[in-house]
Amino acid sequence: MKRFKIITLLLLFGLLVSVGCDSDFEEINTDPNNPTAVPSSLLIPGVVRAAQNESYSTFTGGDMGATWSQQFAKVQYNDEERYIPRQSVITRVWNTFYAVVISDANAMQTIAIAEDNNNMQGVALTLQAYGYAFLTDVYGDIPFTDAMKAATEGLIAPTYDSQEVVYTGILAMLDEAISLLGTSGDIDATNDILYGGNPNLWKKFASSLKFRMLMRASGKMNVASDLQALVNAGNLFSSNAEDAKLTYLSADPSSNPLYETIIFGGRAEWKINSRMVEILSGSNDPRLPVYAQVNDAGIIRGKPAGFNDVPSDDWNYQNVSPLGEFYLRPELPGFFMSYPELKFLMAEAIMKGYISGDANAQYLEGMTASLEFNEVAGPDISEFMANKVLATTPALALEQIATQNWIALFAQGVESWNEYRRTGFPVLSPAVDGALNEIPSRYNYPTIEGSVNKTNYEAAVAAQGADLLTTPIWWMN
Amino acid sequence: MKTKFNGFLTLILAFMVQLTFAQEKTVTGNVSDASGPLPGVTVIIKGTKTGTQTDFDGNYSIKAATGAVLQYSFIGLQTAERTVGTSNVINVSMKESAEALDEVVITGFGRKVERRSATYAVQQVGGEEMTQARESNIVNSLSGKVAGVQITNSSGAVGSSSRVVLRGASSITGNNQPLYVVNGVPLESGNFGNAGSGGGADLPNGVSDINADDIESISVLKGPAAAALYGVRAANGVIQIKTKSGRKAQGLGISFNSTMSVETPLILPNYQNSYGGGGNQDFYQWVDGTNGSGGVDESWGPPLDVGLEFVQWDSYKVGGAPLPWVSQPDNIKDFYDTGLTLNNNISFSGGAENIGYRLSVGSMDQTGMVPNTDLRRFSVGGSSTYTMSEKLTTSVDFNYTRSKSDNFVTQGYNNENPVQQMIWSQRQVNFNDLRDWKNLPLAAPGTVAGGTPINWNTNFQNNPFWVLDTNTRAYNRERIVGNIALNYAFSDSFSISGKVGTNFWNTRQNYRQAFGSNSAPNGYYNETARSYAETNSEVIASYTTKITEDLAFELSAGGNSMYRKSELAFTAVPQLQLPGFYNVANLKAGSNWEVNNSFSEQKINSLFGFGKFSYKNYLFLEFSGRNDWSSLLPISENSFFYPSVTASAVITDMIDTKSDVLSFLKVRGGWSEVGGIGALSPYSLQPTFALSTETWGGNSVAFLPGQLNNPNIKSESTTGTEFGIDVRLLNSKIRFNATYYDQTSTDLIVPVQVTAASGYTSSVQNVGEMNNKGIELQLGTTVVESGDFKFDLDLNFAKNTNEVISLGGLDALVLGGQWNMTLEAREGESYGSIVGTFFERNEGKVIYENGLPKIAASTKVLGNITPDWTGGANFTFSYKNFSLNTLIDAKIGGDIYTMTNTWGRYAGVLFETIAGRETGIIGDGVMLVNGSYVPNNVVVTAEDYNKRAYSNGIVESSVFDASYVKLRQVQISYKLPKSLIGKTLFTDVSFSVVGRNLAILHKNVPHIDPESSFSDINGNQGQEFGQLPSARSIGFNIQLKL
User: Fold this and answer.
1) Ramachandran region, residue A20 (left: φ > 0; alpha: ψ -120 to 50; beta: rest)
2) B interface mutation test: which of A451, A461, A469, A470 has the most B CBs within 10 A?
3) Which residues does B35 contact at the CB level (< 8 Å), separation at least 6?
4) Model confidence over B635-673: pLDDT tens digits?
5) Contact at CB, B639 and A22, closer than 8 angstroms
6) Are B59 and B28 in contact (CB under 8 A)?
7) What number is the ipTM of this complex?
8) Scanning B69, B117, B475, B542, which has the fewest C-beta atoms within 10 Å of its C-beta?
9) Rounded-to-integer distance, Cα B324 and Cα B304, Å
10) How close does chain B come to A248, measured CA to CA in Å?
């Protein structure tokens, strides 16, 4: 009897061991923590927020955008302002735009196709196009045709395409987006944190973005008829209310990165650049007190780009003006593309004969829209705008347009640097004590590319030129 | 598969049915030694060849007539004799023979075997070494004692983790640390801390929950051969911990052990004391800690001690007037407190005819060197063995530990790491004056620190003492490890045993940040709760037989089921509504909770068998095979088998060459394989989406994770060969053993970093191949033995060569890093390449432009974390009741990237930055003039030079050789002679004074302890910033037994 009990006991131990061999393994290894499917629109907020958080990051749009276009200046830790970039940020930009913005928008597109939702496909294509545009404008040649194929084709080392190929591809994506948007399918209003579910506004975003891309490539491609077609189609931004911007929320972590770092994070080294102060004060521009606060001495004083030993007696936290309070609000919008920029690009396109129209009117509308965005009081706008007119000499007019665009692009660091590289205006001197004697033409590729995608990286460098900040990219040549 | 498994059970049943039971009178009993039951003891009837051996639990059974003398023999123990009387039970407690204390070793599955028959490298450390030379994390006690064990204690912060690597890294991104097994039950020792280069707190790893006083022995099974029995997690070797247990037939024993030790910083950076804070030699004015020179966290300011006076942070004391500008050479040293550790442990053990038990209660109370950091640990454990009948033995063993801290210090590059503001610093600041923060004025309103106590700088920091007191990281872990086991001996030769063991813990952590904190102006609070449980159920059937008179055979076969689950719940309140109130409900209006929870589980089912042939007790052949089924792998690939074969021969017995010169000679060798699942975590096969912790105003945000899962992944494997020799000379006065091993891990499961352009940042693949080969040498000698004086010298040495053979076509895989330095696995290099930017050179000389060194735009390998060799020397002198033990250990080779050096040079606080402050610096190198290189002759300021040569942009200048030779331990012990205590209650009284981590005898890296990392995980190795200095500890220990 006792032995029987013992044998029973041992058998029970045996049972503990033998409970199934792998019959329940599939169930055990099914992820209970993450959804296997989501509606396409639920991916919108992440993509939109990631894109704007990256481009408004003080380390990206600030250090390697706005200080290079000399809108911002730094009174401490100004390596990047002196053209010594922070490589980790260069890698982060690449990773954010590829692995979050484009990758998630690409997934959004796949889901939208399965959902048979044309409008969501259009949204997904527009966001992918924006992501590729951001990347190619800062790096030059990038993977495009072979990109995003790890999951579908197992392709983990994509070849790089020339910027010309990338541009052609982006334009095709935008064409497809424009043709899909406004046809069918719902865009969830809550999830669409850009346009509240309005496909027509997405269509205006796609069309206006295409306008920007064509203008950027206009030195290399024949863009006139495409530009005119966009104007004719009438789907471009028609007011500040329509432009593509993420209005941030009032509290960390969903507030504007400038606020997050400078106010919330207490890192006040990003200040106003003297070039901006010079240009605005030279014309009594009412945006000056919006862009900058007074220093300890009660005046607005900017700092030129560069200088090795800051803070110094000359350039320090007290005597260089902080950025304006308007730009340090948590809710400051993050722009994909603004209405004033479109107006200035249209003014330029008219001046260059790409499209028909009244360049002066576009120019004035751009200025007025920018003043309005900056909440300059109506009477002050009228007073300032009185007698403003675009010069008749094309060269002078183009400089005026580019300069006004540079002013209006305040705090849109990377975009203002893009436009400076394209137009060369306003005239800027390289940073004092800079590691280079010129303003950078591009970001170098993330250093890890030389390891994880070596062959293709090397081919890209061979095609485009040395992987340096000074190597001009295709549309700059 | 199920069929196969059921087949196995049928086999066990078949065994049972075949059993026959002896009808004659039989003498049974249990044989034990000081450490518990002894298997393999030869029991013979004196004067005959009739005999048997004790089984795995020390039990034996022999037919013998009354009056016969039974002889019990076992190598290393004194032979015992008992006469058979009226009782049918004879239990024997064997005593150690004075000569060879280490003749019994514990091998796989906790089996005690004679060392002579061990067929692979095993090295054992006794429990006494854990309790006298006490460390709060027991693994640190192994430093320098075991050949080939590389131990890196992360820092001197209380609760810091320690990384243990045996024979080099075998996995690329997976765990490289050995499996800890406590009394046969695996103990997860993962570090769930979040310390890294960017901050966070290091947490004690799991093994630190083991109470040193409960340890009987630790045996280190270094290679895969020893590990084949423990399955997939044992590919990095096994550290088996056996805890003490009570013995049968023994009266009550009480043992008390108490240690008090004090800890002081072993090393602090060498700071300059000649120049104060600011960015300008001519000027300093403190305004409010944000503006003015106080906003600068660098020391490029005016000279100190030359009669200057400036308005400084503490000028409030004198109504805002200037104060003398003087040096504070001890300002960092004064920041630290003297740490204090108190350890008390009491245990009771005893037994009766059929039962043995031990109960133990221990407490540790540790106060850190960093103000307001602590760790308290309470543990209670018990074990009992009950022999129910001559055939049935049951045992139970459990241990409960609570580790608790009110605050662990923030580490890494984070402004709440107090050391950060000693590097980004102003040298004239007397930190001690900031200590009494409750009585300091508040920082100026409008500055980032407004509302918090004043600090010398409020731009980037808060008052460090205030941070330590208010912004706390509390931690509480409760763990239960235990098992129940039962063994039934059907006969002398056949037994079945079952064991169910569990390792369960839960932790609760919270992190508080008060209003006005630099990185959280409106405060912050989070709570993390984790729980973890692993259960192992195991059945083993064992059979021993003598095939012939000379040939013995043992065979065991069994199965194991492992089930593990872990849960996480995390809630963060990114901004608080009410100041000073820490509860997840206290959410600021407009802000949103950040929450995350997860559950994961996995199973591994295993069948295994192992056996051993012994021929004439001098030739041994062991073999094993194990098949695992893991739930983490795809169904089609989830089964994997791995075998091992090892053998040894005692040459001196084989060909009778034993002499006074050559006392013992053994050779051994083997081949083995261990399967593994490496870095694979649950749910890594199928793609999913995920919901972000950060909502958009409370609305869900979905994203596609950056890791591409792989439904076709398969198991990895480590295959190794090992050869060894054990020699004893001059009557064992010289003991030498050497092991050579060569092991290769293939198909390593790696989340391969891929270009983000592919859509993902990593992709799970079977790509890696890595090789480790090396030698381990141990030499023990009795140098002098004369009367009461004895001097023993034990040396150990290990050299491991690691090579990353393949990364599946990738050149490199990033493991971790800080700033612009990456720690990588690179094809063709040793594991852990330090990669980063470097200076451009011409013919070896640094190229200067405008007087400043030129930094190349690309990166290259600048160093490697893998040491060339490690070793230890242990000197033991004993005279009568005194003994002196000194341990020196060394790690030679390997590099470290130290950003204390980087930022300390950049910020002008380190001693080297004095050079050229007045005269400027001409860098040593060349410059290009008219197309040819000539020596650089351009003078630049010391500040310009240091900021160019040392910054996040240039990695090369901060990579140093991390070699060290440390005086790890000096211990003086005195044992009261029996003549003194004979009449007291006590049976044993001893005292010792122990110093640990006493001095760095040699190092090449300035300013820091080269034994350093952010935590014990792979990616945090070979890096340092803002190191909490390692602790020099001096303690007093008393042990009483009664």
Assistant:
1) left
2) A451
3) B104, B112, B216, B217, B242, B244
4) 988 899 999 999 999 998 888 777 778 888 999 999 988
5) yes
6) yes
7) 0.93
8) B69
9) 9
10) 9
